[in-house]
Amino acid sequence: MSFSRKEMVASYVAKVGSGSLDYSQIAAEFKAKGIDQKESTVLLRRIDRDLLRMAEMEKRRQSGKNMILVGLGIALIGVVYTLLSYIRVYETGGSYLLFYGPVLSGIGIAVLGRMRMG
After folding, report:
1. pTM for the complete prediction?
2. End-to-end CA distance of the chain
3. CA dist., res. 5 & res. 11, Å (int)
4. Where are the alpha helices (DSSP H) in 19-99?
C-alpha cells in the first residue's frame, strides 16, 4: 500500500481532535481512497485508541495541576500560621508553634502533582 499507517493515524487524530472530522467521514474517505474494510477498521481503531490516550493524558495533566495548587495552598496555610504564631510571641513573649506538618505535606502533594503531570 502507498500509505504509512502511523502517518495516516496521526493526521486523522489531529483532524478528529480539532473537530473538523468525525468517524463516518473518515470511513468515507478511506473508502474513496480504495482502502479495504479490514484495513479501514484497523485504522479507525488506532485513531480511536490514540484519541482516548490523548484524553487520558490531558486528564492526568489537569489532575496534576490541581494537586500542585492544593499542595501549595496547604503549605501556604502552614507558613501563614507559623508567622502569625511567631508575631504573637514577638509581641507578648512566650513560645510559638512551628506548623511544619502542613508545610511539608503541602510540598509533598505539590511534588506528586508535578510528577503526575509527566
Report:
1. 0.71
2. 37
3. 10
4. 23-32, 37-92
